[in-house]
Amino acid sequence: MVVFFDIDDTLLDHTSAEKQAALRFWEHVRDEQKHTGAHFLTLWNRLAEQHTVAFLTGAISFIEQRRRPTRCTA
Q1: pTM for this prediction
Q2: What's the chain's Rg over C-alpha atoms?
Q3: Are 64 and 56 in contact (CB under 8 A)?
Q4: Dihedral angle sign, alpha carbons of residues 54, 57, 60, 65
């Protein structure tokens, strides 16, 4: 018997954790003239999705997928 667990937002609330972490990151790098917190989250989510696709297609490594949003938004 094999049991699969979907941890993203089933066993772990990844979405809320990522949102909280992104906002904490924004607090350290923010330029209030450039982005509000809400705008930053929209940008963060778009970049995270873009880099996840790149990882899933083999274009970048898992580590690079996690690093890229911080480079693009700062």
Answers
A1: 0.71
A2: 14
A3: no
A4: positive
